Amino acid sequence: MLKELDPLLHSQLRLAIVSILMSVDEADFVYLREKTNATAGNLSVQIDKLTSAGYIEANRILNGKKTRTLCKMTDIGRNAFEEYIETLKTYLIIKK
Amino acid sequence: MEDKITSEKESLEIISRMIQSSKNNMQVGRGNYLLYSGYFTAILSITLFVLITITHNGMWSCGWMLMFVYHYAITYKRRQQKPLVVTYTDKVIRQVWRVLGSMFSLTFIAIAILGEVYGQYDFALMMPLSLLYVGIGVSINGIILRERWMIYSPLVAFLFAFYMLMMLVTGRHITVVWNLYLGISFVVMQIIPGHIINKKAKHQC
In Å, how far is B8's CA from the nearest CA of chain A? Predict the structure, then answer.
């Protein structure tokens, strides 16, 4: 029986966020918004979901008068992403 | 982007697209850190050369201490302006400069302590060692960024450094021209690669 794909990662925007964060060390909210073409509200909701699950770390910092949100993968998130890829591979092999 | 994924292939497509888009974080002005440092050092070297030549006062060499001021000013500025994204490459480059900066400071402290012990201060050694440290840093950065100019341009600095070390070891006189050697080295290993990187970034973005 095929293992279920992690529902938290099996979403367009959340997968996009995690994919970006897997390839960089740290990314700002604005950068993620530019790369994913998402609205600020939607992005914020998805980041909160990933943060609540412990997949990513979101730190709010003060930069002058502005508040910035810096996001970064956690070890739990990395493991979850790697597992997601492994499961995805099994799906693709069977479909072949 | 929506909340649902229609197929596994779509998942793969999103992953590869996102990784690709953030892989080459080539930003306009990426070579600026080389340019700022290069121009500052080149101008400082010419200024000190002129001042020592005109006044015949070797104390102007203490002007090289401004390098520390420059370093701390740049570090402060970077901390204030965090970039939108920090790639692993950026992180490695930052660590390389942190290690070399520490070596620079430690060398200065070591010379000061030895000067105190032996009653004779000779900071002339800082010149060739600075060229070696900065040259190694630029070359490592070049390897990381795959910039050929950055990898090989520090050879000029290494040649001047070895020449200076040979002069010091053989007990010959340090000349005022050494200041210019430093300036020339920084032009070749920082200013030229800095402009090349910025030009490439402009083309890619």
Answer: 7
CB contact under 8 A, A20 and B19: yes
B135-166 residues labelled b (16+ CB within 10 A) or e (exposed)? bbbbbbbbebbebebbbebbebbbebbeebbe
Q: What is the pTM of this model?
A: 0.80
Quick: pLDDT tens for A8-42: 998 999 999 999 999 899 999 999 999 999 999 99
Token digits for B159? 């040649």
Q: How many residues does chain A have?
A: 96
pLDDT (tens digit, 9 = 90+) per residue, B115-130?
889 888 778 889 999 9
CA distance A10 to B128: 57
Strands (E), A21-91: 26-28, 56-63, 66-73
Q: Give the nearest partner residue to B23 out of A23, A27, A88, using CB atoms.
A: A23
